[in-house]
Specification:
- The protein has six helices and 27 strands.
- The N terminus is likely disordered.
- It has a six-stranded mixed beta sheet. The protein has a five-stranded mixed beta sheet with strand order 21-20-19-27-22, with no helix packed on it. A four-stranded antiparallel beta sheet has the order 1-3-6-5, with no helix packed on it.
- The protein is 10% helix and 36% strand.
- The protein has three domains: 86 residues, Immunoglobulin-like; 103 residues, Immunoglobulin-like; 135 residues, Beta Barrel (L,D-transpeptidase catalytic domain-like).
- With 418 residues, the chain is mainly beta.
């Protein structure tokens, strides 16, 4: 079997213990002391070795197991050495142990209406071994399934604020979120441990670290909920995976007080663009947003959204989506005279034609955009709002316990939303 443990959705970094050493002077001082009679021997005792024992699940001949089933391993007096799972034809099934050694997880959803045999061997430090075998069968394809979406794609580059975003249709109820979260796996290289947080309603979950990703980070993601019960009588439709990379660091900061956008690359201000934000009747939202979508050319048709009085239909270039409700950055040559002076848009961030084209060529999906001073707060879930709350608030959305090394974190002001 592969011995690399699964990196689960909740990564834990263990501190190293440091040994203190005495100085040469202290050793010399001890040698100078007059000799004394040796102390009487101290009685010592060692705890008897724990007998090697191994229990595995599912139980032998278990039927109707979910296609997401894991091979549970409970060991006393030793550790799991190997896990081998084969299907009914004798073909080995790929999988890995969880980091905590509690179970073996198949690398992809098992087949429905299929039989499997698992053989687990554990060993003690003394070299004693024990093997257990169990056979089981999986259930048929369920009649009700949860649809899933992963907003991350193979071989793409993303901005430093790109959260791992998973969508569930319908949303996952609170009773099932912990089990689902345990099957959401993220690995980062270099390591940057993070946490999952659920949006109210359970239709989305975000994964992020305390700070923006380091440029060049490799993200490897598996949403392993195919065949997993996501609600009573409802099961995940399929696994999803993606491997992507984080690009350079670029941030956009928009301040309503002076109606300017400042663009920072690797922490350095590279350009300031005049903007026009939402007019008083339709103010822009303030908050930390993320570029979700880019369209070089599109059509805004807002009659259904705003009605006949405020609605319009117009061709737009260099549009970058920030919210689901339509707040965007885009070129708006018709508002050039107002940019830097007054707010006249329907909630978007208007920039000049030249500024919009320049910015469009610079940005990546996942770049952070911070808008301040409009008096209207960004709603949770209106876009990828993972960065619109503090780390302390973000981790409250996890369905699993948070370890102290991630709970007690103060993000650096130089690498988190300003």
């Amino acid at each position: 079997m592969r011995r690399t443990a699964l990196v689960a959705a909740l990564a834990i970094m263990m501190p190293l213990a440091l040994a203190a050493c005495g100085s040469d002077d202290e050793t010399a001082a001890e040698a100078a002391l007059p000799s004394a009679a040796p102390p009487p021997p101290v009685a010592t005792s060692s705890a008897p070795a724990v007998p090697l024992a191994l229990e595995i699940t599912p139980k032998d001949k278990a039927k109707n197991q979910p296609a997401s089933v894991e091979i549970g391993t409970a060991v006393a007096g030793g550790t799991v050495e190997t896990v081998k799972v084969v299907d009914g034809a004798g073909k080995e099934v790929a999988g890995e142990m969880r980091a905590d050694g509690s179970s073996w997880v198949p690398a992809k959803t098992l087949a429905f209406n299929a039989s499997y045999t698992a053989t687990v061997t554990a060993k003690s430090e003394a070299g004693e071994s024990i093997t257990r075998t169990t056979s089981f069968s999986t259930m048929g394809r369920p009649g009700k399934e949860t649809g899933t979406g992963l907003y991350l794609f193979d071989d793409r580059k993303y901005g430093v604020a790109m959260p791992v975003v998973v969508e569930f249709i319908p949303g996952v109820p609170e009773s099932h979120r912990a089990a689902v979260e345990k099957r959401l796996f993220v690995e980062t290289d270099p390591p940057q441990p993070g946490v999952w947080s659920w949006v109210k309603g359970g239709d989305q979950a975000y994964y992020r670290a305390p700070e923006f990703w380091q440029p060049g980070t490799k993200l490897t993601v598996r949403i392993g909920i195919g065949g997993l019960e996501t609600a009573p009588g409802t099961y995940g439709n399929e696994d999803r995976t993606a491997t992507a990379e984080i690009g350079r660091k670029l941030e956009m900061r928009v301040d309503n007080s002076d109606k300017q956008m400042k663009v920072y690359e690797d922490g350095k201000l590279t350009r300031t663009l005049p903007v026009s934000l939402g007019k008083p009747k339709m103010p822009s939202a303030s908050g930390v947003m993320v570029v979700m979508e880019k369209k070089e050319a599109t059509v805004f048709d807002t009659y259904e959204q705003f009605g006949p009085e405020e609605g319009y239909r117009v061709d737009v270039e260099f549009a970058q989506r920030l919210t689901w409700t339509g707040q965007m950055i885009h070129a708006a040559p018709w508002s050039n005279a107002s940019q830097g002076r007054e707010n006249v848009s329907h909630g978007c961030v208007n920039v000049s034609q030249e500024g919009g084209e320049w910015l469009f060529g610079k940005t990546l999906i996942g770049d952070p955009v911070t808008v301040t001073g409009t008096g209207v707060k960004l709603d949770e879930g209106n876009g990828w709002t993972a960065w619109n709350v503090s780390w302390e608030q973000f981790i409250k959305g996890s369905a699993l316990p948070i370890p102290d090394n991630l709970r007690n974190v103060t993000p650096s002001p130089t690498n988190s939303p300003s």
